[in-house]
Design a protein that fits this description.
By secondary structure, this protein is α/β, with parallel strands linked by helices. It contains 9 helices and 10 strands. Helix 3 packs across helix 9 (about 275-285).
Length: about 290
């Protein structure tokens, strides 16, 4: 909630739209839109004009097709709060930096008349909010982010090391919240995303716009010299000599370039720089949503 003032910078009230429709006057939206969004079971009160004949004939039960306004901008924010993200050596945890960046972007989208939803990946059950518009929707998103992060920290407190849960399940869940042509923004360090993550991400990029916020801790980029003890989820322990920080920098940039070639633009988020530095990055990302 405290980041709203940063989100307002760079978008003057004179140029910011007040609704998701063109025109200078805010009016009540009428009708159901013209773009198909979903097919669901018919329920009492549904308009019979929107009965989907194909689904009804195939299943033997009445189904209706829902629609949305094709000029409406729907954005789902995917926050990675898996155990590997609960780590940080400067200013904040990587998970906190991811939440800050997504909150900044969400406030910008909401202020521009768009709808904002949320999907949170963690070691427990995912947190999901369907896209909705206005200040009330963003208040719900920020509250859900804070609660999901608190739950993730509690789950890891004193727990034995365990394997990182795959990210592709939450990715598929986030996709289900969006209509065709929607926008998905992922904030993660992409540590161990799962064997099917890249393939699923490439397939989804053909139907929706995907943007990536690659979170990076200072220790990953500039490790002090020395030997570092480690313990893995499978019980193995040892001591490692880390590679030079410059190689980590190159690896992050190469990863972003690889995703860009697949149509998935992204930015690198340095945890130690803080929200003041994130704001222009999110403004740039918002411009391509």
């Amino acid at each position: 909630m405290g980041l709203r003032h940063l989100a307002r910078r760079g978008s003057a009230p004179a140029t910011r739209t007040l609704a998701g429709l063109p025109g200078g006057i805010v009016t009540r939206r009428r009708g159901r839109g013209s773009e198909p969004e979903d097919v669901r079971l018919w329920s009492e009160g549904d308009d019979r004009r929107f009965i989907d004949r194909n689904a009804t004939a195939r299943t033997g039960q009445l189904h209706v097709r829902t629609h949305h306004d094709e000029r409406d901008r729907a954005v789902v924010l995917l926050a990675d709060f898996r155990p590997g993200m609960l780590f940080g050596t400067r200013r904040a945890l990587r998970s906190v930096a991811a939440a800050e960046a997504l909150a900044l972007l969400g406030w910008r989208v909401a202020a521009d008349g768009g709808r904002v939803g949320l999907a949170v990946a963690s070691a427990g059950a995912p947190t999901v909010l369907r896209p909705a518009g206005g200040e009330r929707a963003m208040i719900a998103v920020t509250g859900a982010l804070a609660q999901a992060h608190t739950d993730a920290l509690k789950a890891e407190s004193g727990a034995p090391a365990r394997a990182e849960p795959p990210l592709e399940a939450t990715l598929a869940l986030a996709r289900s919240l969006l209509p065709a042509g929607g926008h998905l923004v992922i904030a993660s360090a992409l540590d161990d995303p799962g064997p099917g993550f890249d393939e699923l991400l490439t397939l989804l990029a053909e139907r929706i716009a995907i943007r990536l916020i690659l979170v990076s801790d200072a220790f990953e980029r500039a490790r002090p010299p020395g030997y570092y003890p480690f313990a893995l989820a499978d019980g193995r322990r040892g001591t490692a000599l880390p590679t030079a920080g410059g190689q980590a920098d190159a690896s992050a940039e190469a990863r972003l370039a690889d995703y860009a070639r697949r149509g998935i633009a992204g930015v690198r988020l340095d945890v130690e720089t803080g929200p003041e530095a994130y704001a222009p990055l999110m403004e740039r990302l918002d411009a391509v949503l």
